[in-house]
Design brief:
5 strands; alpha+beta; about 140 residues; SH3 type barrels; 5-stranded antiparallel β-sheet
């Protein structure tokens, strides 16, 4: 006949086959760790450091898209943000998505130095007379 009977082969070294099957999964996990998990953890650490370093006067963007200046740091979890002149809102620090511009640290402990008096302005120069035409006009 055309069909020959097939006989099953016996498994040789069954322990090695299981470890060989796990190697691709381990390689995939290692690659995913270095390409996805580790950079995401680093980004999260940088974001936490950025949030912890915000201070009064910084311009921020919230996760909702509001752009404003920090008017007051209330506590470790909230800040007051001025989004328009005279309009202040309380925002959770966790909702800060980006710090656009950093400011100098506010020094509220020391009084401000008095401003130097302005120099008196110089008097404005008189405009020069311009030459006019030398024609004389006579009336009849």
């Amino acid at each position: 006949m055309f069909i020959t009977p097939a006989f099953a082969q016996t498994a040789a070294g069954g322990d090695g086959g299981f470890l060989i099957q796990l190697v691709p999964f381990l390689l995939i996990f290692i690659i995913l760790y270095f390409l996805i998990i580790r950079p995401q953890q680093r980004r999260a650490k940088e974001h936490q450091a950025m949030i912890a370093a915000v201070r009064r006067g910084d311009t921020i963007v919230t996760s909702g898209g509001l752009i404003g200046k920090i008017a007051k740091v209330i506590d470790d979890h909230e800040v007051s943000v001025e989004i328009a002149t005279g309009v202040k809102v309380k925002v959770s620090r966790g909702s800060i998505a980006e710090v656009r511009s950093k400011t100098e640290p506010a020094n509220d402990d020391k009084p401000d130095k008095p401003a130097k008096p302005a120099k008196p302005a110089k008097p404005a120069k008189k405009p020069r007379a311009t030459k006019t035409s030398t024609k004389t006009v006579t009336k009849k």
